[in-house]
């Protein structure tokens, strides 16, 4: 039965990974015996080791790329599985291309994590390619207000504070060029 309405669950299979513990009936303190107190004082046995792989539940017979070989998904020969020092994926020595004969002593990286030494720039060394000066640009700036130069003549002083004459309250600041043009015309 499941839920507050106690809906019966017919033809339901439960996949048991370790053990199922039943809910014990409460025993009043006055009815507890010495044997019962000794049994509840000892914690129930724990699993020998926690489940590490949540995908396969550490099932040795089930292929899994997370806890086995990333190429063949096999878990056989655990002594010949090498871990990438970058991504922590495991690989059989025989599944690698080219296959390794022995586990290397130094750091080892898989083909996806391995970097070409020619692509790495040493600290303090400059890149071989120089940036362009940027004097010739082909970018179309459009007619936006961001590219408008600062006008030299303005009816408003630079240190003006307060409402701008001719500008209604609530008008948006994006119309500021219209105000400057308005002052230049009048």
TrEMBL record:
Family matches, as InterPro entries: SRA-YDG_sf, UHRF1/2-like, Zinc_finger_PHD-type_CS, Znf_FYVE_PHD, Znf_PHD, Znf_PHD-finger
Entry-linked Pfam families: PHD
Segments forming domain PHD-type: 50-116
Coiled coil residues, start to end: none
Record keywords, A-Z: Metal-binding, Zinc, Zinc-finger
Transmembrane segments: none
Biological process terms in GO annotation: negative regulation of gene expression via chromosomal CpG island methylation; protein ubiquitination
One example GO MF annotation: ubiquitin protein ligase activity
PANTHER family referenced in this protein's UniProt entry, alphabetically: E3 UBIQUITIN-PROTEIN LIGASE UHRF-RELATED, RING-TYPE E3 UBIQUITIN TRANSFERASE
Protein name stated in the entry: Jg21001 protein
Source organism per UniProt: Pararge aegeria aegeria
Organismal lineage: Eukaryota, Metazoa, Ecdysozoa, Arthropoda, Hexapoda
């Amino acid at each position: 039965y499941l839920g507050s309405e106690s809906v019966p669950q017919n033809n339901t299979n439960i996949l048991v990974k370790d053990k199922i513990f039943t809910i014990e009936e409460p025993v009043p303190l006055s009815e507890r015996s010495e044997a019962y107190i000794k049994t509840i004082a000892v914690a129930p046995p724990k699993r020998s080791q926690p489940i590490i792989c949540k995908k396969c539940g550490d099932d040795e017979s089930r292929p899994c790329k997370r806890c086995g070989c990333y190429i063949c998904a096999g878990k056989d020969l655990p002594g010949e599985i090498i871990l990438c020092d970058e991504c922590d994926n495991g690989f059989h020595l025989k599944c690698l291309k080219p296959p390794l004969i022995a586990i290397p002593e130094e750091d080892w990286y898989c083909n996806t994590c391995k970097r070409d030494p020619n692509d790495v720039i040493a600290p303090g060394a400059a890149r071989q390619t120089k940036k362009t000066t940027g004097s010739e640009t082909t970018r179309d700036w459009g007619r936006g207000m961001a590219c408008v130069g600062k006008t030299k003549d303005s009816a408003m002083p630079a240190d003006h504070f307060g409402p701008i004459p001719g500008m209604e309250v609530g008008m948006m600041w994006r119309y500021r060029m219209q105000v400057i043009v308005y002052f230049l015309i009048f």
